[in-house]
Design a protein that fits this description.
It comes from Aquipseudomonas alcaligenes. Keywords: ATP-binding, Hydrolase, Nucleotide-binding. GO terms for molecular function: hydrolase activity. It is elongated and about 55 Å long. A four-stranded antiparallel β-sheet has the order 1-2-4-3, with helices on one face. Strands 5-13-6-7 form a four-stranded mixed β-sheet. The protein is of the alpha+beta class. The model has no long low-confidence stretch (mean pLDDT 91). It is built from five helices and 13 strands.
Length: 225
Amino acid sequence: MIRLEPAGAEALLLVLAEAPDATLALRMAALAERIRAELGDLLTDLVPGWTSLLLHYDLLRTDHLQLAARLTPLLEAWLAEPLAAAGGRLHEIPVWYAGADLAEVAQACKLSIAQVIELHSATEYRVGAIGFAPGFAYLGELHERLALPRRATPRTLVPAGSLAIAERQTAIYPQASPGGWHLLGLCPWPLFDVRRSPPCPLAIGDRVRFLPIDAAVYRAEGGRE
């Protein structure tokens, strides 16, 4: 059941589901575009999450009661629409599975390194949220046999392009930053560049598959060790 909850003086949280599913991210992306198109003049920002949309609004132009009233018919129409098909753009992203934690993850999951790579690369992921850092796309859902809690001690610096896992999610760090996820590999492609339009090639609802490559291909694609 959808909930509309005030989130401070200038924000409204739309909770659209209790848990994500295979179609929710794509449907949420469509809803977000509709809200921007019809209510964009009232909003200052719209932030998607795994199961929610956070709407920041201009307090000089509306309040959460007026905004909720404007949103109600949009949400009713959204709920009445048929469930989305697979949809979303498919991105096939190369990864050299040579991460610092690969052997440790295999041991913790009681798998061989080859099995970890196979399970991780065989899954088609959905972009459920983008945040933490510019272009950091949270991808789910990771195979249950690879599910691990975050590292007890986060790293102070994770190299840009690092492919990592935590809980039931996977992601690539688009910039060098601190991080507490387990590192499985490296992607040679930049996943955030302010000179591009859009800066991040991944969008909410897109699909991602990882293609295992070797060190030679990684270097040929522009990767740095």
